[in-house]
Give the backbone structure.
Amino acid sequence: MSANRFYNSFDSETLKPRPAHSGEYRTAFQIDRDRIIHSSAFRRLQNKTQVFLSGEYDFYRTRLTHSIEVAQIGRSICGSIAHQSDLLSDDFFIDADLVECACLAHDLGHPPFGHTGERTLHRLMQPYGGFEGNAQTLRQLTQTLFNEGREGMNPSRALLDGVLKYKTLHTEAAGAPNHYLYDDQEIWLDFTLGHQSFPCELTPGKARNSFKSIECQIMDWADDTAYSLNDIADGIHAGFITVTRLEQWAEANAQTTAQAEHLSFLCKAIRERRVEARLNRHIGDYIRAAKLVPESTFLSAMTRRHQYRLDIDPDIKAQSKLNKKISFDLVFRSPQLQQLDYKADFILTRLFQVLEKRYVHGDDSLHLMPASVEAEIAKASDKATRARLVCDWISSMTDNFAFRTYRRLFDADFGSITDFV
């Protein structure tokens, strides 16, 4: 197979040199992907909330099944673009392995209980540098994924750029309170950008966070596609979205002709019990809606990954936005899910407060965390570092492990001396 001229050594470079193995047949991006798939952090996504708490029902999506679906859609977008764009060729194309890798990795940093868990840790970690799911994904990839001297998996520059949806640091993020990187991740941001400074027009916040490589844009649209269609499907299967509720929602919300037609489509699919098949058919529409357009940025001279942008058909983008609005109003704002959100916030807050008291402030000597984590905390020189290590452990928890840990600490009728898993 001939080399892919789309990429160069700048794209595959790692911060620290990777050992060269005799007979290695994989590309740098395939190595990145394989390491993610074989990590415990990736496996733990099977028990982390997507919409509904993992384990409640066996057919709803988890973070793991969502990530797999995003990866499939991402690869398909690459194939669609290669097929329909005359900007690409057989030896000049967007690497589907790289896009798949970014898609599989994009939710690695999410804590238990979905976005509720992220908001809770964001609030609790404010004195220590904040918590953000995308920033935690970067931390996983670069520092904690395999716990090898806290060096992570030494990812390629192109993979880092593929998952970096946000490029504003926490101290700069006044206008983006939950879309930032941790301040100590500036070294990785600097490496990802090839040590180039942002031009003045890319100010911290929305403008800077919108600056993305083409692979990151594909990952982002694949993610939008998956959750805007699949959250609707799961909401219908769970009984939150019904024909009656959709009709009531339509009466309370003004719609364009296209939006009214889409609501009729959803109602018809529910009545005919063809929700999965009808919505799955739309995935192809979303994939074909993505077009490649040339663009020039301050990194264009260094990498072709910043010479193009993804242009999405406005009608499809509007439909995606409508689906997300319906899911938000009828599912995420429902009393049932908000009650679970309240419980999740309460559990994580209590866990963090106990561990903060013990390990950040050092108020007692109980052994509440694994010995390996305690040893790292003991070597930390300041409260912010200790708090970050505590947060790493909490955010790595699955939903069930967080429940069990809470009950061992606070439920007098739960747990025994052998209950440590």
Q: What stands out?
A: The CA atoms of residues 80 and 288 lie 6 Å apart. The first strand starts at residue 290 and ends at 294. The domain at 9-209 is CATH 1.10.3210.10 (Hypothetical protein af1432). The mean pLDDT is 91.
